[in-house]
Amino acid sequence: MGAASLGIPLWGITSVIFLPLLSSNRMALDAVRMQEQFAPLVAWILFGALLGGLLQFVSKMAEIRYGPEAAPALSRKQAPLPFPASGIHQAKGHRH
């Protein structure tokens, strides 16, 4: 679902702004020309959904083939800091 929503900005950038500018036409920003762009909007959303599904499939296949991704080992300096102010103390070299 998230990948499908990425089709909306892609549609806006390509079909509404760049393609009309590259073809020496005006951008499709008025109501009538935006209505003409509805079919490409649906196509871009479907493209985003298919791309997201393909990426998820390839990711699962890679996990099956090569195993799960190993988490990096955290050293003491890389350990997550408790919220909120301890980062200031560690940045100055103080310990709790």
Protein topology:
Layout (H helix, E strand, L loop, with lengths): L1 H4 L1 H16 L8 H6 L1 H29 L19 H6 L5
Helix pairs in contact: 2-4
How does this structure look, described?
The protein has 96 residues and is mainly α. 64% of the residues lie in helices and 0% in strands. The mean pLDDT is 78.
End-to-end Cα distance, whole Å, is 44 Å
Fraction in beta strands: under 5%
The tally of helices reads 5
Overall shape: it is elongated
The average pLDDT value, as a whole number, equals 78
Q: What is Rg?
A: 23 Å
> What does the largest sheet look like?
none
Helix fraction? 55-70%
State the secondary-structure class: mainly alpha
The helix-strand sequence is HHHHH
Low-pLDDT parts are none
Work out the number of β strands.
0
Could you write a compact summary of the structure shown?
This protein has 96 residues and is an all-alpha fold. It has helices at 2-5, 7-22, 31-36, 38-66, 86-91.
Question: Which features does this protein show?
Answer:
mainly alpha; 96 residues; elongated; 5 helices
